[in-house]
# Entry
Amino acid sequence: MKRKCLIFLLVAGLVGMASTAWATNLLTNPSFEEPSYPEGGYALVIPTGWTGSGPVFVEHPPHDGSWGYLPTDGFQVLTMMYPDTYTEQNAGLIGTDTLYEFTVDIVPWAASDGSSAGMIYLSEDQGWTNLATASFNIPLGGLPITLTVQWDSTGSAYAGVANLYAGMVMTENTLGTGDETRTFSSFDNAILTPEPATMALIGLGGLALIRRKRG
# Structure
């Protein structure tokens, strides 16, 4: 009975550690709530904890939806305009044997023409190589979408050496005409989570050790 309890506690503990690791968001200010503005307020400013370049706004859209779009989490959104505008955050040193997942909500503006066009990415800061990317080009006035990229650091030369950056960048609009060839996107709920790839192996190793002792 004691051995069974020990096995149960070991498995439960490992599952708990894995769940906690997966649930931890490495990004600060992921819903762009700082700096904070009143309803209907906005400013040309980089969100707290992030870096970037180009026309970058933090906005608090009216709660009645009169701007044509609403946050998917919290009260504020990050809005970027024009190609090559970007916002990113340093998530710290790249871990070994780690699966990273980066998800972002894209909220297209409510306009009759043009599109919300861009890319989300994970990159490293040694050679600024993109490790994983996902592109989007959706009509303005459409519904929000969630974009996801994953990258496994197992065997990577960047693990333990380079820092991981998660970010969003605007690209050329291919759907608009005239002035609306400009591209507009709002972003919300940016989540970067690490999952230790070796956690399951540790659990199996612990169980094998207990069984060996039983034998």
The two ends are 15 Å apart (CA to CA). The helical segments are 2-23, 199-214. Confidence is low (pLDDT under 50) at residues 4-21.
